Amino acid sequence: MTWSYDNDPENDDGDAVRLECGDTNTDEQLLTDEEIDYCIAKEENVTSAAARACDLIAAELSREVTTRAGAGGEFQVRMEQAAAGYRQKAIDLRARAILYATPYAGGISISDKDAEEERTDRVEPAFSRDQFENVATNGGLTEDWNTDGAR
């Protein structure tokens, strides 16, 4: 398991995820490079990957117990507060990631429509424009369609 941060979030997605979720301190490493890579692979953009990373950190911190030092508990480390902070950070990052979503409506331009029709892995549509142009005389059905209206 490795950990690295080269302070280059503009050119390195791993550094960008670490910067967004606050995992940049070499002395307090929260996620491995492999865990960061997993987040990047599962999400569509760096911001969403950082949100997933915050969820992983929160899950890890949730397992930790509150640490007290001193008879009166004058020093406490409350891990549930840290976990809640990372959960909120994940929520904030997801809200920001939504801003990057762009809708897609295929087939609006002729070239886009032609490109979609030429894709070899595309599912053959059940119906298409002008499919009934050459209606046969067998009760109004073409050879491709049976009397149930199915292929």
Describe it.
The protein has 151 residues and is mainly alpha-helical. The chain has a domain at 13-100. The chain has helices spanning 13-21, 33-42, 46-62, 79-97, 110-118; strands at 67-69, 75-77. Strands 1-2 form a two-stranded antiparallel ribbon. β1 (67-69) and β2 form a beta hairpin. α3 packs antiparallel against α4. It is elongated and about 90 Å long. The N and C termini lie far apart (55 Å). 17% of the residues are buried. The mean pLDDT is 82.
- Which spans of ≥5 residues are poorly predicted at pLDDT below 50? none
**How confident overall, as mean pLDDT?**
82
- Provide the β-strand percentage band: under 5%
Please state the overall shape, judged from the principal axes of the Cα atoms.
Answer: elongated
Distance between the termini: 55 Å
Number of helices: 5
Number of strands: 2
Structural class: mainly alpha
Largest sheet: 2 strands, antiparallel
Task: List the SSEs and their pairings.
Blueprint: H1 13-21, H2 33-42, H3 46-62, E1 67-69, E2 75-77, H4 79-97, H5 110-118
Antiparallel strand pairs: 1-2
Helix pairs in contact: 1-2, 1-3, 2-3, 3-4
Features:
elongated; single chain; 151 residues; two-stranded antiparallel ribbon; 42% helix; mainly alpha; 5 helices
Short description:
By secondary structure, this protein is mostly helical. The chain is 42% helix and 4% strand.
